[in-house]
Amino acid sequence: MTQTRIMLVDDQALLRTGFRMVLEAEDDFTVVAEAGGGAEAIALAASVRPDVILMDVRMPGIDGIEATRQITAARPESRIIILTTFDLDEYAFGGLRAGARGFLLKDAQPNELTAAIRAVASGDASVSSRVTRRMLELFGSKLPAADDDDASRLGALTEREREVFLAIAEGLSNPELAERFFLSESTVKTHVGRILAKLGLRDRVHVVILAYRLGLVGR
Amino acid sequence: MTQTRIMLVDDQALLRTGFRMVLEAEDDFTVVAEAGGGAEAIALAASVRPDVILMDVRMPGIDGIEATRQITAARPESRIIILTTFDLDEYAFGGLRAGARGFLLKDAQPNELTAAIRAVASGDASVSSRVTRRMLELFGSKLPAADDDDASRLGALTEREREVFLAIAEGLSNPELAERFFLSESTVKTHVGRILAKLGLRDRVHVVILAYRLGLVGR
DNA sequence: CCCGGCCTGGTACCTGGGTACGACGCGCTA
DNA sequence: TAGCGCGTCGTACCCAGGTACCAGGCCGGG
C-alpha cells in the first residue's frame, strides 16, 4: 500500500512538528510539506500535491477557510481536514462549507488523528464526535437547556479568559472590561487576543455570536 | 397648579423644536431649557433645575445614559425620561438602571408623551407599553416563539437597513457586507452608521446582542 | 530548585470601524 | 414642479480594537 502524503498548515511551527512526529510514527504516512500560512499552503498544495492537508483555521494573512476554499477549488483531490482548538466556531463550519472533508480538534488523541486521516484519504468524511454532537445540538430542532457546567465547554480557556469571554459577550468594550476586572487595558487586550486565538475567532463580534449560539449568555 | 418645568436633551435641534411645540401647547408645561449634548445637559440641569428632563440616548460626547447617571446622582428631584427611536436597546435599559423614571419612544403620540411627563412629574414611573411588553418577553420566564414578522419590530429601519442589520448580526465585516450586497464599503458604512444611530447602539457588537436578544437570528 | 502555566503589564504598530461631511439619482407625492 | 425619503458613493479623520513581542511576579509540580 502506498503512503498517504500529508501537508501540515499552521502558523505555529511547534504544533507542526508535534503533529509531524505523531504522523511520521505511522509507516503509511509521510509529511511532504509544511506551511505557516494560507498563501504558502495554496502554493504548496499546487506544487507538492498532498493527499491530505491538515489545515489550521486561524492564521495571519489568508486564513484556513479561504485557503481551503481555494485549494479545493483548484485541486479537489486534496482532502482537507480542518484543525481547531475549539469545537465550534463560525470559521470551522465555514471550512466545511468551503470544501473541507474533516474536522478535528487539536487536542485530539493520536489515534483519532490517524483514523481521521485514513478516513478522508479513503474518501470518507470525518468529523470529530464532539463537533458532531455540537452540530446536532445547535442545528437540531431542539437544544437541551444548557446545563450550567456548559461553560466548561470552553475548556481551552483559562478561568480568567472565561470571565473575560462572557463579559465580551455582554458587549463590554476593552476599557469597560478593564474597569470591571480592575485590569489595565493592556492586560485586557492580552486576554482578548488569547481568547480569539484559542477559539479561532476573528474579533469580538464573533465572540458574541458564539456565546449566544452556545447559550452561554442571554437566558 | 404650578407649571411643570421641562428640559429637552437631544442633539437634533429639529426634534427638540418639534417636542417643544407639542409641549408648549399644554398650558401646564413650560420648556425651560434645551441641550444638544450630555455635558450641556448636566450643566443646565444644575443651573435651571427642571422638573422633568426628556433625554435622548444617543448623542455625541457624553451620552444620555451617562448624563442621566450624573444628573440623578447630583439632583434626584429632576425626573428623567429616556427617549429612544427604538423600543429596546442596551443603552435604554442602562438608562433605567442609571436612574431614569420613564422610557418613551420618539414616535410616541403627543398624548402619550404628555401623559408620561405628568406621570413622572407626579412621582410615578412611566414606561412605554411596548417597552414593557418587550421587557416581559425578554426577562420573563418564557418568551413566545418569535412570530416571523418579528423583524418588523425594527420599524425604524428601512428595508435595506434591515437587511444589513441581520447580516451584521451574522458577524459579517464591512467588506463582507459590501460583497454580499454588491455595495461599496462607503455605502455599507453609511448604512451601518444609520442603523447604529436609529437603534441607539454603540457599535456592531451591540447590534449582534440586540439581534440575538430579540430572537431575530440564530433560532 | 527550577520550570512552565497563568496573570499581569507595557510599547509599538496598523487596520477596521465609526463619524461627519457632502453629493447625486431615483421615485413618489404634495 | 418642487420637494423628500431612500439608496448610493466619496473623502477625510480618529480611535478602539487587534497583533506582535517582551517581561516580571506568582504558584504548583517535577
From TrEMBL, chains A, B:
Keyword Transcription regulation in the entry? The reply is: yes
Tell me the ranges covered by the HTH luxR-type domain, including all copies.
150-215
Keywords, alphabetical: DNA-binding, Phosphoprotein, Transcription, Transcription regulation
Q: A single Gene Ontology molecular function, please? A: DNA binding
Highest taxon of the source? Bacteria
Q: Does the keyword Hydrolase apply?
A: no
Q: Which GO terms describe its biological process?
A: phosphorelay signal transduction system; regulation of DNA-templated transcription
* Signal sequence residues: none
Looking up InterPro entries in the UniProt record yields: CheY-like_superfamily, NreC/VraR/RcsB-like_REC, Sig_transdc_resp-reg_C-effctor, Sig_transdc_resp-reg_receiver, Tscrpt_reg_LuxR_C, WalR-like
Tell me which Gene3D superfamilies the record gives. 3.40.50.2300
As stated in the Swiss-Prot or TrEMBL entry, residues carrying the post-translational modification 4-aspartylphosphate are 56
> Upper taxonomic classification of the species?
Bacteria, Bacillati, Actinomycetota, Actinomycetes, Micrococcales
Name under which the protein is recorded: Response regulator transcription factor
Task: Please report the stretch or stretches of sequence annotated as the Response regulatory domain.
Answer: 5-121
